[in-house]
Design brief:
The chain has about 350 residues and is of the alpha/beta class. It has helices at about 5-20, 30-40, 60-70, 85-90, 105-165, 175-205, 215-225, 230-235, 250-265, 300-305, 325-335; strands spanning about 45-50, 50-55, 55, 75-80, 95-100, 210-215, 240, 245-250, 275-285, 285-295, 340-345, 350-360. It is built from eleven helices and twelve strands. The mean pLDDT is about 85.
């Protein structure tokens, strides 16, 4: 206990020692410097700290104690009946605060024990979070190394397949060209899986900061549609975009988000007579509510709850290519931007994905 008022200190000592089976052993000093010295010489379970000491006063006292003993629970003693002071003390790192003379021995004993237990729980949580952060780093490093190592042979295979189509190397019959095309598609598919795995690992680890800025979403969608124009034209899909808004987000992840949602809508369009995809937005206060709607095959009700999980796909997608990672990337991207995502779908009629993103900053 660091308390310069002898009367207050004796009162607290008496109250605690009078509590049956309390088990308290109290060391009392009058100045912060004495307290800091004592903390280096002995082990303690908790600190009771007055904010008005001869050699230190105010919240700076808490800061000095925290620098010396960051893991010890701390209860601030104050003579002011001012709740704002106590709350400020808690914000500065104290576990609790007490107004002198307002608490009896048994209650004081409980408050101290609760503060000790609360601090232990906080430290256990902090250590668990640190271990999780380290584990996420390891997983991300492993994923990064594996994808890098696997991309090297894929690049070599892609180069060989390209050379095989070159008449200078040798002419191929139609069957040979078809085989090369199948190989190229397989390489592209594998590269897509590796890219998705790495993107998902980075999002789930949460250790790569997002490069947020104001992003014009219609420009992002225009680039996505340009990348997908071959599939759009081949399937004769009508595209409608009304998303002229600006969000505060990471542009490259916005590209991945819309690439996955629109790409999925194209991929799972099926043989419907009406083939349409529409993208729109409405602005509400500090967020934008987007939707991506299609008239495709829809998602069976029993598959909807798990559709955002890794490698989960609708039960009606047999025979349709896909990594099973796209919607997981979409969900993690939205949540990394403090947004929410949900869907409405009916099998055979289509799907609407709704999600929110933060509005642009001024």
């Amino acid at each position: 206990m660091i308390e310069d008022n002898a009367g207050d200190a004796r009162l607290i000592q008496t109250m605690l020692l009078d509590v049956p089976e309390s088990g308290f052993s109290i060391k009392w000093v009058k100045t912060l410097s004495e307290g800091l010295t004592l903390l280096t010489e002995m082990l303690f379970d908790i600190i009771l700290l007055d904010l008005s000491l001869p050699d230190s006063s105010g919240f700076e006292t808490i800061y000095k104690i925290r620098c010396q003993s960051p893991k010890l629970p701390l209860i601030v003693l104050t003579g002011f009946d001012d709740e704002s002071i106590g709350l400020k003390a808690v914000q500065e790192g104290a576990q609790d605060y007490l107004i002198k003379g307002t608490v009896e021995g048994p209650a004081l004993s409980r408050i101290i024990r609760y503060a000790i237990e609360r601090k232990r729980s906080e430290e256990a949580l902090r250590e668990s979070q640190e271990k999780l952060r380290q584990k996420n780093h390891e997983i991300l490093d492993f994923t990064d190394n594996v994808t890098h190592d696997l991309k090297k042979p894929l690049a070599s295979i892609k180069t060989i397949l390209t050379l095989m189509k070159n008449p200078v190397v040798g002419s191929l019959n139609p069957q040979g060209l078809d085989a090369v095309h199948v190989g190229e598609e397989a390489v592209f598919y594998m590269q897509a899986i590796l890219d998705d795995l790495l993107s998902l690992a980075k999002l789930e680890a949460g250790i790569q900061p997002l490069e947020k800025k104001n992003v014009q979403i219609e420009n992002v969608i225009r680039l996505v549609l340009d990348r997908l124009k071959y599939d759009i034209n081949e399937k004769q899909i009508k595209i409608t975009v009304k998303a002229e808004t600006i969000v505060f987000a990471d542009e490259k992840y916005m590209h991945k988000l819309f690439m996955n949602l629109i790409g999925n809508a194209i991929n799972y369009m099926g043989d419907k007579q009406t083939k349409e995809i529409s993208v729109g937005v409405s602005v509400k206060e500090n967020e934008c509510l987007f939707y991506v709607k299609d008239t495709g095959i829809g998602i069976p009700e029993e598959s909807q709850k798990e559709i955002f999980e890794k490698f989960k796909r609708g039960k009606n997608t047999t025979g349709i290519s896909g990594t099973g990672l796209g919607l997981s990337i979409v969900k993690n991207t939205v949540e990394a931007h403090n947004g929410k995502i949900w869907l409405e779908s009916k099998e055979g009629e289509g799907t609407v994905f709704y999600f929110t993103l933060p509005i642009a900053e001024p």
